[in-house]
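Class prep. Sample record?

___
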Amino acid sequence: MTVARTICLGFLAVIALGTILLMMPFSTSDGTWNDIIVALFTSTSAVCVTGLSVVDPGTYFSFWGQFFIALLAQIGGLGYMTTTTFLILLLGRKFNMRQKIAIQQALDRPGMSGSTQVIRSIIATTLIFEITGAFLLLPAFVPEYGWSQGLWLAIFHSINAWNNAGFSLFKDNLIGYQSSFLVVFTITTLIIFGGIGYQVILEIYLWLRDRLFKQSMKIQIFSLDFKVATSTTIILLVIGSVAFFCIEIRNPETFGYLNLRDQILVAWFQSVTPRTAGFNTIDIGKMTTAGLFITIALMFLGASPGGTGGGMKTTTLRVLTSCTKAILQGKEEVLLYDRKIAISLILKAVGVLVASVATVILATILISLTDPRLDFIKILFEVVSAFATVGLSTGITASISTAAKLILIVTMYVGRVGVLLLMSAVLGDPRPTRIHYPEENLLVG
């Protein structure tokens, strides 16, 4: 039982438990037993923080069903190892070496020291952001739905935004709040910070603490992870906002009927949510083909490592683009912010790209065979949304066949645990070797 197998089986166990809970009569609004496919799909979508749904969560599920969805999204966002480690801390037990190694691999940390402090800081950061987000959303929901329902709506959407899950209790998702600066600002802020990674948030906190309280006069040196994650995120957000604004501004069914202020808000929201949250303030199915392809690209790239989002990750993108830059400049070293990237990281980035593309292609082909009536762009959109754990949909999720739903369930699971981690769980840990083969040239490109 390797660490990779522990993590993969742990996610499967949580999905199975969630399926059982969502099948119970007290989880549905009509008090009857839930369909197993609906329960399995919803549980997988929640644990994998995707947000795709074959039913309307706001009307199909009771309060307890909605509570279980939020709880599963919380567990999925934190990660299986973080959640189980936190439970171990609550019970007052100590970590063994195996658990420390599992935490290191799950959080992609350079060392095993300070695991307890890291878990506590992650839980504290999560609670601070989710509670703050819920309070900010109260003025938008309480006047319309009353205190009890408005409070639950604020909590539910805050949890789903921070964990990049994308479940909404409104029939039209957040389209009814597309002009609300408060809702748009709160949801997008939770999405960005939830997906940018806990290490980045910690470095921001330390920098602000030193500047506000002047505890240290030394210049803080930000890590390479921080520089890459923040700069890439900002670049993608700006490019996405401008691209959506320019492409969809003449589409009367998305941006065209809005005033300039609302168009900017919608463009900003649509640039944030594919990274990988799943909320929407416009009808995704009515976007132009160009707008759908841009959304697919942003979904595939995804969030940053160490956060609650999915996708290929921003760091993988920067490593690959830096490799291309090095080749064009005739260099034999890959540099990022005056730091040399190790060959092992380059190989890992290439492996992530190849495995991700192969997964998306395979799932798209299979759904094209099971549901040939669907348009290719909609199938590709749905598959990338599932693999990158986004949750955006053109509206075909509920109408696809059972076989296609099962394919999406597997795709969501693969996207959440990671292709390389899943392959490591299947094949086992690699064995070291002392054999070295001769080098030979090969025509490439």
Summary: Residues 115-162 form the longest helix (48 residues).
